Amino acid sequence: MSAPRATTPGPGLGPGPGSGEPVPVHSRALDLDLGSSTQTSHRLLAYSDALLSIIATVMILPVAHTKIHPDQKLGESVQQLLLTKIAVYLMTFLIVTVAWAAHVRLFQVIELIDDVLALLNLACMMIITFLPYTFSLMASFPEVPFGIFLFSVCAVVIGLIQAVIVVYGFYHPHLLNQQIQVSENQNFYKRHILKIILRGPILCFLAAIFSFFFIPLSYILLGLVIVFPHLSRFITWCKTKILGQRNEEEEHHSLETFSFYLSEPLSKERVEAFSDGVYAIVATLLILDICEDNVPDPREVREKFHGSLLEALSEYGPNYLAYFGSFVTIGLLWFVHHSLFLYVTKATRLMGLLNILSLAFIGGLPLAYQLTSEFAEKSHNEIEAIQVSCVITFFASMFQFAIWTTALLHERETLHPFARYGGKEHAFMFAKLALYPCVSLGAFFLTCLLSEFSTEIFHLMQIVIPFAFLALRIFVRISLTLIKSVMSFSRRKVVLLEEEEACLSPTDTLS
Amino acid sequence: MSAPRATTPGPGLGPGPGSGEPVPVHSRALDLDLGSSTQTSHRLLAYSDALLSIIATVMILPVAHTKIHPDQKLGESVQQLLLTKIAVYLMTFLIVTVAWAAHVRLFQVIELIDDVLALLNLACMMIITFLPYTFSLMASFPEVPFGIFLFSVCAVVIGLIQAVIVVYGFYHPHLLNQQIQVSENQNFYKRHILKIILRGPILCFLAAIFSFFFIPLSYILLGLVIVFPHLSRFITWCKTKILGQRNEEEEHHSLETFSFYLSEPLSKERVEAFSDGVYAIVATLLILDICEDNVPDPREVREKFHGSLLEALSEYGPNYLAYFGSFVTIGLLWFVHHSLFLYVTKATRLMGLLNILSLAFIGGLPLAYQLTSEFAEKSHNEIEAIQVSCVITFFASMFQFAIWTTALLHERETLHPFARYGGKEHAFMFAKLALYPCVSLGAFFLTCLLSEFSTEIFHLMQIVIPFAFLALRIFVRISLTLIKSVMSFSRRKVVLLEEEEACLSPTDTLS
């Protein structure tokens, strides 16, 4: 959940006496000393990222905690789940990410804060954390207008608070982004950022009104809030494709006058911070379940197991295995994400969207844990549980892979030179990203074929993967050498080889 | 949960094409390009901070979720809680903070990471997240050696993994802190850091052995793990006080040769990141309770409230009030912490300890929420519930205040010049920090006197405080002006006034 920004941590201090770490004194940070109440915003943003990522993810718990009767077929109960709780989870996740994106844009414009802004932001966070509850109401009472009305009111209040923040920021221009501060048409910027921020709340306001007359329309309006930014982007993209290059140039021109802060992608640091929050909360939700469900009752131990704690605990064996397996999965998916974003220099909108979809599936992993630990080696639901886990893992890792392929499409803008197509790091990154999709897909089909051993296959997969990651670098190196030597031996495509050599050289000579 | 470090976010890149933010290229980050697999550690550390802070805090949930029968007197049940679950929570919190402190020290020595270190760190995190479970076992079966044995084994494994990380780091010296890298006696550093890291695990190893013979001794050894760093510090401090200044100079000298990385306080950034994690998870645990407990059952609404959702929801009125009240409390305590650490330039050991104690009480706030929402306006437990909430809030804010007073003792080293004794910012900071202790203490005594209106008093307090924070700056300014004018009017202590003027001038002229 870190957000290393170009500003200094404290109020623009150099290294304190006795501190050995060199703290770069950024030019903006010095402005602090002008108004003693002005502060850098980095910690406020990091805290907001943490709150938002936890709120987005935590709604998986009611899904995971839904008690399914062991005799019931999992298929039916999953359907029942899908209809209400999973819908609440996904809606919450997506709406919170929309709110998060608006928050990122807002604080790309306002770079410094003071106490009033900090308190306003906290008020905004308070309303956002209340959103999951309104969703729960909507899911439980889809035909009653009150749930959707309450949600819309919250969204409108959030929009209004953010608008107040914008107006306050432009009233105290020293808080603004420097590029906007020196620009002459501040009013234009103000209108534009207000338009972006109030777009959602206005749709929600309409939804609140319609909720009393015609509820389906309200739901459509709410859905529009989520897809609107991507939809408008897609329409612009289609337009430029149809009308040709000329328009694109025009758009490019208008972009430049707009400054990058309003139309460029979200800052990579905050994407990382939000992702870290989701991974961290998912990893730790698991131990909560373990602690609440798998501590045996002292009386039961005395009566059923004749006082032997070890015997009682051995009952929970599969749960521990499922816990460690899930933690390893989440940890390694974080590791892949971390490796990927080390080489990403800029996250485009599409990459951001794919990242959020990946995170939505990551958030589903506690459900996978609950399924594998409850049904493993028990009943006829075993295979389904393991297959659901495989599917969740597959999609979470596949969307990560999609981020990579999207980045490759515009590799000059989005990727570090090392990781671009043709280099050794490229091959290594490819292997890292491809590991989980391949393994989960393989496990899925293996469980179809060898349904007898599905649990064993699944646990074997979870245990083997960390070692696969450790050996990956060696493996990639060997296979690259093999390919090279085969090619040089056959000496058929000399020209092509030379090209590849040229591509490989920057890393080879350095490492 | 942010950790803004002096290193660049990506692998040492300048600003990407089209990105307007100036990213300072740090000299260390350029080293990355030498070994293509080497990375900056900031995101790994931020993720670790997030995991550790959540793990430390999340064990309050079993405490808060303990069902207390409404007819039962709260006094008795609180005692029962105290004996087991609160003990588990506090032990987990303190042990996890010890593990966190060791982790901070470790990665002050190792500054860059590669894939192997990242995976080793994840393995370490996995074992740490398992610790709360071993505590639950210990609390449920205090007389069975298995719980304490399991805990000790985990602690030993964590220590071993960290030792492997140290050895790996010193085997690849380019990963180390630059100061150690250029130093000639690397072996000395290696031994010293190994000693710090293995101190706890060795005590735990002894505890594991003794757990089969004499359990109380094991518990004493585990307690020693928590207090050992502070105890040794305290003993050294006493020694220097008794033996006089001469020894202090000697110690100072040895400190210098040691380099600050091994004996200096924890990095302020990671203290902030860990604190943010605790505040964020506590704030969001609340909404989880709201969503799980306060969504009415559709059938109940139909039968009991004749289909009126609003009527059913009005039943939960006090819960909403308690939720918003708790969120406001946590948000504002975070705000005070944030304001305080803006002016702290270095967190000494004692300040770190006080911060952790404050956080431990912050972690208790979900319990306060549960108490106020369950018992408010219900039964004879009302006053006790509100008083417990006041006490928790009081201690959480009082320890924050203690951080401030401790910082003032060594203000030249620990505080920003603005916030030092005598300035306007000093008075403002003092007012900010004193607000919560005063109000919660006042509410506590008011509930004793006016026990009839205790709920009203408590909610009034929670609603008034945010406005108090907004008005604080004005209030402080007015009172400072008043004091000044009274003093200049009486013209009795002209010399003293001039002194104060001199103290006030740096902020006055600037703001």
Outline the fold blueprint.
Two copies of one chain form a homodimer.
Chain A: E1 39-40, H1 42-58, H2 60-64, H3 74-109, E2 112-113, H4 115-140, H5 145-171, H6 178-182, H7 186-210, H8 215-243, H9 245-258, H10 260-263, H11 268-293, H12 298-304, H13 309-314, H14 317-343, H15 349-362, H16 365-375, H17 382-409, H18 411-414, H19 424-449, H20 454-490, H21 494-510
Antiparallel strand pairs in A: 1-2
Keyphrases for this structure?
511 residues; 21 helices; globular; homodimer; disordered C terminus; two-stranded antiparallel sheet; mainly alpha; TMEM175-like (chains A, B); 2 strands; 77% helix
Short structural summary:
The structure is a homodimer of 511-residue chains. Chain A is mostly helical and 511 residues long.
